[in-house]
Amino acid sequence: MSGVRRWIGPAAAVLLLVALLSVQPWRQARRDLDAEPGPVVGAGAAPENSIAVLPLVDLSDRKGDDFLPDGLSAEVIDRLARIPNLDVAGRASSFTFKGANQNIAVIEQQLQVAHVLAGSVRRSGDRLHVTVELMRAGNDQALWSGTFDPEIKDLSAVEDDIARTVAGELKLEPARPRVGSSRGAPGGEAHEQYLIGRELQRRGGSDDWRLSIAPLRKATALDPGYAAAFAALAYSEASVADLAADAAELQRADNDAAQAVRLAPDAPDGYAVRGYIRTFLTWEWAGAEADLERALALEPGDSDALSNHAALLARLGRLPEAIGLAKRAVELDPLSILVWVRLGRYLTANAQYAAADAVIRRALALQGDNSSALVELGTLRLVEHNAPEALAAFRRIHGEDGLAGVAMAQFALRQRSASNQALVEAIARHAAGMTYEIAQVYAWRGEKDLAFEWMEQAFRQHDAGLCFLKFDPLLDSIRHDPRFTAMLREMNLPD
Hints:
6-stranded mixed β-sheet, 6 strands
């Protein structure tokens, strides 16, 4: 979910932070995708109405705590994403450039944007000194710069000012100010706790999700009308509930998402998180689609909501539509591994193997040891009947998470004994957490009764992997079995 606010200040000498990635894999992926039907990803010159927000540089005397500058930067991205007809690079892509110097031309080339917003923040007690500069990509031309010296409690107003000013400079209609709280702008400490919680979420580890709950709950306690904080809290609670199979925590997440919608029915946050919960955790497909469509109507430039909506459509078996939305998410967030991995998964399932290969290679160019990307590479090689390369991909996955894939690849290589050994090890180590993956192995090996046995166990445990039923190519051997149709009906999925 993208949600957060930002600030301003003239940053003439604001450092352009960027981690330079190879441009060639991105261009190759773009060429290969262009050969496939559907929207073209990243083709041609950057749209005129497009912008990237670089992470604000922390100039505070006390360093080591990035929550405030990073949170402010992410909030600015979120505010700008609500401006009609403005393409805003997603946070994952923009934050790739944190901590390195790079010129505007490189940023434009990497993110396919025509404008860049950069700046710095210095904190002194309860006051901030924020500088921001809006630059024209390609020639480093400064279109506008501004400085702000707000107290922490006034940050929300500064964020609105930045978004309005950028819209004016680009001659676009500004978005309506986001509803922060039913009491008006959220209070200073509540907003600061919200920023801390959101940044912990974005760091993405399981411990980070757990740690984010405390500051977000504090934000909602300090300001019970703070809709965005309730929505963020629901995300954290849902993620922890999924990791721990905790039904009580999932219920709390559902309640907090509903509260976010009640407090701010014209803001996208509550709908986005409730759509996420219904898609990935509770399998309420119709409600999920209504929520995600509403979130995107309110914030069309939210790459996370686009990606989640694509995930929902894929789960419903509507792969061409899912691919179209996933390509749009990639356009908005081209350096996000998650959006590339998901797009690669849908292209593989839709038998667009050349395009899937280009997309998965792009994800691995961003992070060569990413487990999700390696799983998709191994899956693609399996369905392409290239078992040796599938085995090599699954073996690159750290720890035991690649065992199910190894078992399938070894079976395809007619190494039955080795396949059995890998499967037994997977069951022994991860039976509770990977029931769906074990069902995949049995389906791939043609052992239908065992495949359905494990799928029923996955259903009882509410294993999130079951959401792939409609489009998972590894299940093709059992797809026409009456028990498969029965499983779809149990999950309220279309036959």
